[in-house]
Specification:
It contains 2 helices and 4 strands; from the N terminus they run αββββα. 22% of the residues lie in helices and 33% in strands. The radius of gyration is 12 Å and the shape is globular. The two termini are 23 Å apart. By secondary structure, it is of the alpha+beta class.
Length: 82
Protein backbone atom coordinates (compact mmCIF):
# COMPACT_ATOMS: atom_id res chain seq x y z
CA UNK A 1 0.00 0.00 0.00
CA UNK A 2 1.44 3.34 -1.00
CA UNK A 3 2.37 6.07 1.47
CA UNK A 4 0.06 8.34 -0.54
CA UNK A 5 -2.93 6.04 0.14
CA UNK A 6 -1.98 5.86 3.82
CA UNK A 7 -1.75 9.65 4.08
CA UNK A 8 -5.08 10.06 2.26
CA UNK A 9 -6.81 7.68 4.70
CA UNK A 10 -5.41 9.57 7.70
CA UNK A 11 -6.28 13.04 6.37
CA UNK A 12 -9.79 11.97 5.34
CA UNK A 13 -10.44 9.55 8.21
CA UNK A 14 -14.07 8.99 9.14
CA UNK A 15 -13.01 7.46 12.46
CA UNK A 16 -10.07 8.24 14.77
CA UNK A 17 -9.57 6.96 18.31
CA UNK A 18 -6.81 6.31 20.84
CA UNK A 19 -6.69 2.55 21.40
CA UNK A 20 -6.04 0.53 24.55
CA UNK A 21 -3.24 -1.34 22.76
CA UNK A 22 0.08 -1.28 24.69
CA UNK A 23 2.55 1.28 23.34
CA UNK A 24 6.24 2.00 23.95
CA UNK A 25 7.27 4.49 26.63
CA UNK A 26 5.29 7.68 26.47
CA UNK A 27 3.47 6.75 23.29
CA UNK A 28 -0.10 5.99 22.38
CA UNK A 29 -1.53 4.01 19.50
CA UNK A 30 -4.14 5.78 17.42
CA UNK A 31 -6.35 4.01 14.88
CA UNK A 32 -7.44 5.90 11.76
CA UNK A 33 -10.12 4.43 9.50
CA UNK A 34 -10.61 6.18 6.21
CA UNK A 35 -10.96 5.79 2.45
CA UNK A 36 -8.06 4.51 0.37
CA UNK A 37 -8.58 7.38 -2.10
CA UNK A 38 -11.37 9.62 -3.39
CA UNK A 39 -12.60 7.20 -6.06
CA UNK A 40 -13.42 4.26 -3.76
CA UNK A 41 -15.55 3.23 -0.81
CA UNK A 42 -12.85 0.80 0.37
CA UNK A 43 -11.59 1.74 3.81
CA UNK A 44 -8.13 1.33 5.29
CA UNK A 45 -7.10 0.76 8.89
CA UNK A 46 -3.99 2.72 9.82
CA UNK A 47 -2.31 2.34 13.22
CA UNK A 48 0.02 5.14 14.23
CA UNK A 49 2.34 5.34 17.22
CA UNK A 50 2.08 8.95 18.42
CA UNK A 51 3.98 10.75 21.14
CA UNK A 52 1.77 13.61 22.33
CA UNK A 53 3.61 16.85 23.03
CA UNK A 54 7.04 15.20 23.02
CA UNK A 55 8.29 16.48 19.70
CA UNK A 56 8.92 12.91 18.53
CA UNK A 57 7.79 11.99 15.05
CA UNK A 58 4.71 9.75 14.72
CA UNK A 59 5.24 6.32 13.14
CA UNK A 60 2.79 4.46 10.89
CA UNK A 61 3.40 0.81 11.72
CA UNK A 62 0.28 -0.91 10.36
CA UNK A 63 -1.72 -0.20 7.19
CA UNK A 64 -4.11 -2.53 5.39
CA UNK A 65 -7.67 -2.85 4.13
CA UNK A 66 -10.19 -2.56 6.95
CA UNK A 67 -10.59 -5.98 8.54
CA UNK A 68 -13.03 -7.44 11.08
CA UNK A 69 -11.01 -6.50 14.21
CA UNK A 70 -11.00 -2.74 13.63
CA UNK A 71 -14.47 -2.74 11.99
CA UNK A 72 -15.81 -4.31 15.22
CA UNK A 73 -13.74 -1.90 17.34
CA UNK A 74 -15.38 1.06 15.55
CA UNK A 75 -18.85 -0.44 16.10
CA UNK A 76 -18.14 -1.04 19.81
CA UNK A 77 -16.51 2.39 20.31
CA UNK A 78 -18.60 4.74 18.17
CA UNK A 79 -17.39 7.91 19.89
CA UNK A 80 -14.21 8.38 17.89
CA UNK A 81 -12.87 11.86 17.22
CA UNK A 82 -14.46 12.16 13.78
Amino acid sequence: MSRQDQAYAIIHASYVNITDEPAPAGGQIVVYIGPEHAQTDRELEILVLEFAESGREALIFHAMSLGPKWRRYREENPDGWR
